[in-house]
Amino acid sequence: PVEVRREDYRPFPWAVPQVALDFTLGLEETQVTARLDVRRNPAAEASPVLRLNGDGITPLWVKVDSAETTGWVMDGPDLLLTLPGEAHSVEVATAIAPAANTQLMGLYASNGMLCTQCEAEGFRRITFFPDRPDVLSTYTVRMSGDAGAFPVLLSNGNLVSSGKGEGGTHWAEWHDPWPKPSYLFALVAGDLEARRDTFTTCSGRKVELAIFVRRGTGDLERTGHAMESLIRAMKWDEEVFGREYDLDVFNIVAVSDFNMGAMENKGLNIFNTRYVLADPETATDGDYDAVEGVIAHEYFHNWSGNRVTCRDWFQLSLKEGFTVLRDQLFSADMGSEAVKRIEDVRVLRGVQFPEDSGPLAHPIRPDAYREISNFYTATVYNKGAEVIRMMRVLAGPERFRKGCDLYFARHDGEAATCEDFIRAMEEGAGLDLTQFRLWYSQAGTPRVTIRMAHDGDKVALHLSQNVPATPGQPDKQPMPIPLKVALFDPQTGAHRGEQLLVLDKAEDSFIYQGYASRPVLSVNRGFTAPVAIAQDVPTSDLVFLAAHDDDPFARYEAMQELVVTHLKEAVSGSLSDEQRDEGRAAIAGALRAVLADERLDDLMRGELLILPSHAYLSEQMLVADPGAIHGERQALRADLARALEGEFVALHERASAVPYSLSPQARGARKVKTQALIYLAEGNPALAEKMAAAQYRAADNMTDRQGALMVLAGLQGPERTHALIDFYNRYRGNALVVDKWFSLQAGSLHPQVLDHVKALAEHPDFTLTNPNRVRALYMAMAVNPAAFHDASGEGYRMVADLILQLDPLNPQTAARFVAPLGRWRRIEPQRANLMRAALERIAAAPSLSRDTHEQVIRSLG
Ligand code: HT7
Ligand code: ZN
């Protein structure tokens, strides 16, 4: 497969101002006629050749200026025409087979309905087209089909007309007035029902809102939270970013077969059911948050992505990083800012940091790819958001808003670049981002080393930075790193104000006067920079910050650091028994303070109780021994649970008395309740089994029920079996809840977890054709260290077998399973060999997809 390089970008020689599509719909066969009005693009190098991308389709006929022609050739999957004049009309007819489309890209069938997924390069599986984001067109879409099978016919924009056809068919015509790239095209046809509402925009325009689900499934009652979230997002975007919605309708359709979370097609968002449906009986508090966040994310794309789109796919972070930041700020405003920041940083450290230190590392604006689907990554999305967040930290919220306003005004209706965004931010916010641009071009998580020296009344902070080498980037330059810091007086427990310092050299020192006694340093408060901090801090400083820091993120950070430092030493074998006991006692003391602190709300308390993840701990070590990390982490938990058993039981009892509601207090209570069980399961399994079984039976909501079942799934008593059988029988037929049932077992701490996964793969409800189900079983196992890193190598073999089986059906989903195996260089040698062998077995398979092939080659490379 050929490599596409950012530096090779050239404007397309032809503009396509208008497109008319005509669909004759059928599940087995759909006929598509596309009429493209094309004219030469004066901004591009002239060429008479019009290249229309295709993927797995053939033209039935081709017309130029209304006359059928044979003057076309295929160049691989693409159709080439030579056009003599300045402007022409080009028509192409194709026939496609939605029901046979297991890749879920292009037009496909899902439970009897037809829907599309065109980002990034799915439109070319529907018809021949310049399928690149810098070709913007207005679309008119006519579709006709059986009125019984497809009573609802939807596309982008506004419904223009509709009517009855012959033989029980009907038709509809939609027109989208906003020019858009082909990746934002969408069509849905099916037997759907909708929750409807309206939103009046800030300029007084009434927008009809609808959320569609399959008729007769009971799903309609579960769309209330999604609708409320949408309305809140529309209002927030007006108030915080000054962005108004621009069509008369906004439709959302929920689909159960979907490769990713959702898709921001203009005026017709298509969602994985997972991010639409929620009610207390079937969705956890986490699910509620995810629905709110993804609904907002896709809605916000209407400006950051649709009105201003991307010039090419190297600019993906322009829309994704920016939109993730926007959805993070929204969710922070809707709930607890501190808890949201902690959750976002946990994802960054657990997923993006490992990506940045492994073989798949790439800058947020990549330089080359073979398959663009492989670059929808935590780096492009989450680190991309962090990079824009840093601009906001540097400018402050008001000036940042000015930069955003300028960006939207200047590039409205255009296909823009990351450089355009940076320039608008420089001019609008008044920043000099010359050196900052390195955040776009350099991969790798910077490591900042800090040493504090105290002499007389002077404090010196000596900082240095190192950006590690990554594939293809052996040498790095220092980047500007904004760090919020505060110096605490441990006696008074106060500091003299937070300061923002920017480390923009390889080494620098920052001096503070007037500190008669040595202060305690709180650094990277609010996680202002996506970096790893290395410093030698006394345990007593961490204990102090964990109890007293007035920045909630920094308090959480101190708690994490306390545990990370201890576990790193414990895993390396450098602790005597006595030192280990001392370390555990210090952590127990800090946890006891967290449990007793009445100023803390339970949502925040719950965060402070969560131990650093296995993934984050592994990241701290050059070469990790997953068995040792898992063993030490669990042993620490058991010790803490024994030391604090009474407190955890009391916490569980207190929280269990709080009745169900979606209030922060009730959500906090549910969070700490399950946290208490997780600890007790390690320290006193018999007691935990009893308490979890009681929680399971008493549950009147999915958060409590799932929390209890998760704990039981890892235990070996009889309650485990009872609860698992009960859960399945209670929810069979509800796909999203059955996904939970698969996940909880595959992610469990049970010693026979791999046997359970094998048995579940044979369960009648398991299927390789539904990505949610595949992820529920296999991704849960691949991120479960005790299962995936089983010393036998069986976890690696099972993932490799899955990839080989899934690749011919759904390469995009298959390729996502390569990354866990790709970590082999950072794992101890015995397991590393087994992981590499699994990758080599995949690489040796004949006819791998471009998606999986690219990831495997990079992982071995
Ligand atoms: N912009 C959307 C990306 C997406 C996608 C990409 C590749 C293959 C399938 C896909 N489905 C959705 C989602 C988003 O980030 O908003
Ligand atoms: Zn997005």
From TrEMBL:
UniProt record similarity statement: Belongs to the peptidase M1 family.
Gene Ontology MF terms: alanyl aminopeptidase activity
Domain Peptidase M1 alanyl aminopeptidase Ig-like fold intervals: 444-535
Gene3D superfamilies: 2.60.40.1840, 3.30.2010.30, Neutral Protease Domain 2, Peptidase M1, alanyl aminopeptidase, C-terminal domain, tricorn interacting facor f3 domain
Domain Peptidase M1 alanyl aminopeptidase C-terminal, chain residue ranges per copy: 540-860
Enzyme class label: hydrolase
Coiled-coil regions listed: none
Organism (species): Alteraurantiacibacter lauratis
EC number(s) given by UniProt: 3.4.11.2
Cofactor: Zn(2+)
Gene transcribed to yield this protein: pepN
Positions of the Aminopeptidase N-like N-terminal domain: 94-184
InterPro entries assigned to the protein according to its UniProt record, in alphabetical order: Aminopeptidase_N-like_N (IPR045357), Aminopeptidase_N-like_N_sf (IPR042097), PepN_Ig-like_sf (IPR038438), Peptidase_M1 (IPR001930), Peptidase_M1_dom (IPR014782), Peptidase_M1_pepN (IPR012779), Peptidase_M1_pepN_C (IPR024601), Peptidase_M1_pepN_C_sf (IPR037144)
Swiss-Prot/TrEMBL catalytic activity: Release of an N-terminal amino acid, Xaa-|-Yaa- from a peptide, amide or arylamide. Xaa is preferably Ala, but may be most amino acids including Pro (slow action). When a terminal hydrophobic residue is followed by a prolyl residue, the two may be released as an intact Xaa-Pro dipeptide
Keyword Hydrolase assigned: yes
Keywords: Aminopeptidase, Hydrolase, Metal-binding, Metalloprotease, Protease, Zinc
Name of protein: Aminopeptidase N
Location of the Peptidase M1 membrane alanine aminopeptidase domain: 226-436
